[in-house]
Inverse folding.
């Protein structure tokens, strides 16, 4: 299946992926209006140090520790995509304890959040990938 | 192939899902002595808090058994005849198996305290039925005494605090959450809980009960209306007495096999290797239970699976204060106090950690423990301050972010 892959060589550290991610989750039509005056809490996050930067989001592991460790059954994997059922999540953070990439985080709505490959926004390509100006984040099939 | 699973919680469900990864058609029977759909045991405190309903407590969806072609048998397995591969049921029926998983869980330990039989409203806090019974007696003017300041006792306290007049938690240990926190961390969490209205009596034990009064060892007394016993759990191993090797729990290997042929075990009833300390121990934790169960299921169905990365690990929160801990706490210590953090390391390995408050990216630390990552292969100074993939070498990051994901 197609996944989000990151090549740090091309990452500019511009953080646009974070803004596109936050916008994709906002249900708003206009990006500027959606993000005006808010501190964004995106599901993809840039790590940067000494001129090196790269984006980290859910790897959609084939053996997902977050799903196996979830105490409520809120995290599930279906056709390779790991999604969160916010109704079932009680924010115990066992997934944050488990994820070896640090790709699950607290959200603003009482449940955890993670990249769901924009499956809920019905776009063919995840917003971070579409928004990356330098091709550092791609969505493709790799063995 | 006839698969029988004794236990309908995380380990049992993990096994059923593991079997179905390999074998779509074999007969699976799950035997449970609880009259419920599979539910998440740790959610019973959230139920009393009103944060979940019984419907939302379901660990798997309502059609789980039908979708996976599983027969759910509400009965109690009373005896196993490993010679003829048969299980005796409490209603005097029998069930035969080709491969058996014992995922019988653990039971609340009830300490033999003098006069306990004189206490009318006393409860343990392990099951949905325990929670329902406790729920019935919760009234605003009642005083609650909880024996045990561990995970179970304190989650119970959080769950019922708003529904009673007073809660006192008593523990033999000098600090709360003694199995997962160090002194300073325990003090911090205790202060938080006290600020919410929970009272503590630590380094104390009950000498005897006289109806609604607990007489402590030192002679002090505590009056209460409701008693909750949360002093610990004991693995349910009896079914395999004389059949498989048992220490404190049923001994299993990395394939979740017991010493008896075609009998597997997983979850709270077992004892297994903690890779963070190198010790064999019982680790009654849901994530390990699921992964041991899944591993058992895959192997029962003829697949190949090892689960050899069990470590103690807990994510727990009280009134919005989050705590994540893992591993064991030996070695040198890296400490931060503003956002409480303790990392314990020795011999080039991370052994354990405690995070209170800011728990962001805790899984990076968990992974270093589970994988026994040599610390000289990463930027340990950086990862101490800021957990992240940046601490890894570029080539390792390329694999992690560019493919080859778990």
């Amino acid at each position: 299946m197609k996944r989000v892959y990151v090549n740090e060589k091309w990452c500019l550290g511009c953080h646009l992926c974070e803004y596109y991610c936050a916008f994709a989750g906002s249900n708003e039509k206009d990006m500027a209006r959606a993000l005006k005056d808010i501190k964004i809490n995106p599901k993809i996050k840039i790590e940067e140090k000494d001129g090196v930067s790269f984006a980290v989001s859910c790897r959609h592991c084939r053996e997902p520790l977050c799903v196996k460790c979830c105490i409520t059954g809120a995290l599930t994997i279906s056709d390779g995509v790991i999604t969160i059922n916010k109704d079932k999540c009680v924010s115990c953070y066992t997934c944050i304890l488990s994820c070896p990439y640090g790709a699950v985080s607290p959200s603003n709505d009482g449940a955890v959040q993670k990249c769901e490959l924009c499956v809920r926004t019905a776009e063919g390509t995840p917003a971070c990938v579409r928004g990356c100006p330098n091709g550092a984040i791609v969505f493709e099939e790799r063995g | 192939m006839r698969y029988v699973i004794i236990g309908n919680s995380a380990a049992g469900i993990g096994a059923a899902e593991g079997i179905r990864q390999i074998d779509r058609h074999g007969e699976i029977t799950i035997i449970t002595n609880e009259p419920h759909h599979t539910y998440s045991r740790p959610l019973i405190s959230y139920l009393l808090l009103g944060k979940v309903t019984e419907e939302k407590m379901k660990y798997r969806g309502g059609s789980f058994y039908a979708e996976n072609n599983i027969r759910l048998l509400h009965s109690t397995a009373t005896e196993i005849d490993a010679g003829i591969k048969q299980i005796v049921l409490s209603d005097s029926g029998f069930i035969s198996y080709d491969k058996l998983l014992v995922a019988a869980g653990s039971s609340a330990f009830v300490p033999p305290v003098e006069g306990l039989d004189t206490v009318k409203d006393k409860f343990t806090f392990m099951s949905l039925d325990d929670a329902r019974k406790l729920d019935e007696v919760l009234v605003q003017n009642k005083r609650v005494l909880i024996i045990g300041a561990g995970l179970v006792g304190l989650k119970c306290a959080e769950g019922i605090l708003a529904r009673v007049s007073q809660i006192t938690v008593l523990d033999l240990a000098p600090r709360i959450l003694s199995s997962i926190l160090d002194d300073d961390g325990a003090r911090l969490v205790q202060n938080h809980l006290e600020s919410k209205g929970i009272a503590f009596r630590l380094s104390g034990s009950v000498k005897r009960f006289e109806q609604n009064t607990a007489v402590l060892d030192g002679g002090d007394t505590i009056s209460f209306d409701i008693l909750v016993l949360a002093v610990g759990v004991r693995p349910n191993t009896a079914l395999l007495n004389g059949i498989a090797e048992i220490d404190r729990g049923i001994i299993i290997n990395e394939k979740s096999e017991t010493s008896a042929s075609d009998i597997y075990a997983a979850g709270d009833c077992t004892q297994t290797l903690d890779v963070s300390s190198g010790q064999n121990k019982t680790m009654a934790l849901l994530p390990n239970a699921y992964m041991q169960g899944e591993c058992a299921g895959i192997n029962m169905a003829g697949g190949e699976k090892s689960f050899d990365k069990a470590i103690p690990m807990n994510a727990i929160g009280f009134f919005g204060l989050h705590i994540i801990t893992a591993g064991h706490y030996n070695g040198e210590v890296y400490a931060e106090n503003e956002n409480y953090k303790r990392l314990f390391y020795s011999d080039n390995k991370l052994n354990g950690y405690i995070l209170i408050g800011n728990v962001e990216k805790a899984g990076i630390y968990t992974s270093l423990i589970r994988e026994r990552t040599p610390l000289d292969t990463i930027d340990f100074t950086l990862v101490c301050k800021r957990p992240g993939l940046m601490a890894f070498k570029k080539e390792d990051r390329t694999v992690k972010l560019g493919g080859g994901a778990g």
Summary: Chain B has three domains: 2-107+234-300, 116-229, 320-402. The longest strand of chain B covers residues 349-356.
